[in-house]
Design brief:
With about 400 residues, the chain is of the alpha+beta class. The protein has helices at about 10-15, 15-25, 40-50, 60-65, 75-80, 90-100, 105-110, 110-125, 135-140, 140-150, 160-165, 180-205, 210-220, 225-260, 260-270, 275-285, 315-320, 355-370; strands spanning about 30, 35-40, 55, 130-135, 290-295, 300, 305, 310-315, 375, 385, 395, 395-400. The structure holds protoporphyrin IX containing FE. Protoporphyrin IX containing FE (HEM) binds near residues 342 and 351. Protoporphyrin IX containing FE (HEM) binds near residues 48, 244 and 245.
């Protein structure tokens, strides 16, 4: 069996046997990577919700412990430390409050027709071909176009920095980054920073009805948002808005077609689609790990932890805990009372959960309608991306009976 190693491509391709072994033998594992890993659902859920744990990215010593002695001189690390994702209250409350004003359930639901239009446009381009790379042609461009629209990023600019934000993924892995990974992440941070600085200037001069204009106004009001916070949280929204949803769609197509009876089940009963999406989130979850630092002493299992200890919840393992999900390695779109931990929990619960769910609903219902006989292509094995924490495929060739429209 392949052991737990977030840098090993064989482990990344199928981490589940190693997760199971850890859960069964050492569910609270003090690893050689300087972090403790949790694999049980109950422990993972507690890690995200208990206020004795937090994020300590406002403390330089904590960043040095996590990213090495040069941490405070690495632009990517400094930027990460300004993201709401990495802050505790009161900073977290202030930053999240500014963004949730825009992410109301009503506003997000109102995006559904636009999401449908983009999906149809993307599928129009390939429908007559009978084959596509489901990542390149659908799963990737859709969330990028949607988040660009929400933020107010001009469509023609997006190609410039999608790779730049992707380079930051290594900093989310539960092992310290290598020098090369830091260099790539820094390069990406500097490129996006320069791009956004120009765009903020435009929105400052001529505000529009978009999230960027709103954030720029909050920055101008001074006490709400600093310039560093504006830049970091725009990058966070852009990156979180597409990196993860790409993988929900890609992992979903992959899982449903690896289990053709489940694709047939939703084709025969499309009312199952929302439940199928929760099951995909459980079975191949796009964010595999979240981390917290101990702020006040706490116990997991029989182990005691003290201030400064780093603990990681392996969501992909917790989502396959047989105590909560019987027969956990089986994809079953009819499972009931599904509560996977895939969008996190507690004060950092994902802001974009509803948006991601709507994008996936639109994609799967449209694929079922327009390409009901879609299947994985026999050529070209799908490739998993290098990142462990952000789990997804880089290519996914699929075929169907070509149609004219
Ligand atoms: C399938 C898609 C997605 C998954 C699996 C996902 C997963 C997560 C998880 C697990 C967290 C919590 C991290 C933690 O506790 O440390 C989180 C937070 C967050 N997500 Fe998502 N996400 C998705 C889509 C999105 C989208 C579409 C957006 C934006 C449009 C977004 C924006 C955010 C933000 C801003 C946070 C930080 C919230 C905070 O710190 O209070 N996510 N996400």
């Amino acid at each position: 069996m392949v052991g737990f190693n977030p840098r090993d491509p064989a482990f990344i391709a199928n981490p589940y046997p190693a997760f199971r072994q850890l859960r069964e033998t050492t569910p609270v594992w003090r690893s050689p990577f300087g972090r403790t890993f949790l694999t049980r659902y109950e422990d993972a859920s507690l890690l995200m919700r208990d206020r004795r744990l937090g994020k300590d990215y406002s403390e330089p010593e904590a960043l040095i412990r996590r990213f090495g002695p040069t941490a405070m001189r690495e632009p990517a690390v400094v930027e990460l430390s300004h993201m709401m994702l990495m802050r505790d209250p009161p900073d977290h409350t202030r930053l999240r409050g500014l963004v949730t004003k825009v992410f109301t359930a009503r506003k997000i639901e109102a995006m559904r027709p636009g999401i449908q239009a983009i999906t149809d446009r993307l599928l129009d381009e390939v429908a007559g071909l009978g084959e596509m790379d489901a990542i390149r042609d659908l799963a990737f461009p859709l969330p990028v176009l949607v988040i660009c629209e929400l933020l107010g990023i001009p469509e023609e600019d997006r190609a410039r920095f999608v790779t730049a934000t992707a380079s930051g993924a290594a900093l989310l892995n539960p092992v310290p980054p290598t020098r090369a990974e830091l260099d790539r992440a820094n390069e990406g941070t500097l490129a996006t920073g320069a791009y956004f600085a120009g765009l903020f200037e435009l929105r400052r001069e001529e505000p529009r009805d978009d999230l960027l204009s709103l954030l720029v106004q909050a920055e101008e009001a001074g006490d709400h948002l600093t310039t560093e916070e504006l830049r970091a949280n725009t990058t966070l929204l852009f990156a979180a808005g597409h990196e993860t949803t790409v993988n929900l769609i890609g992992n979903g197509i992959w899982s449903l077609h690896g289990n053709p009876s489940q694709w047939a089940a939703i084709r025969d009963n499309p009312a199952l689609i929302p439940n199928a999406i929760e099951e995909i989130l459980r079975y191949e979850c796009p964010v595999q790990a979240v981390a917290r630092t101990v702020a006040e002493p706490i116990e997991f299992g029989d182990e005691e932890f003290n201030k400064g200890d780093l603990i990681v919840a392996l969501i992909g393992a917790a989502n396959r805990d047989p105590e909560v999900f019987p027969d956990p390695d089986r994809l079953d779109v009819t499972r009931e009372r599904l509560k996977p931990l895939s969008f996190g929990g507690g004060i950092h619960f994902c802001i974009g959960a509803q948006l991601a769910r709507i994008e996936a609903e639109v994609v799967f219902s449209t694929l079922l309608r327009r390409m009901p006989d879609l299947k994985l292509a026999e050529h070209g094995a799908p490739q998993w991306r290098e990142s462990f924490t952000l789990r997804g495929l880089t290519t996914l060739p699929v075929t169907w009976t070509a149609t004219r429209h």
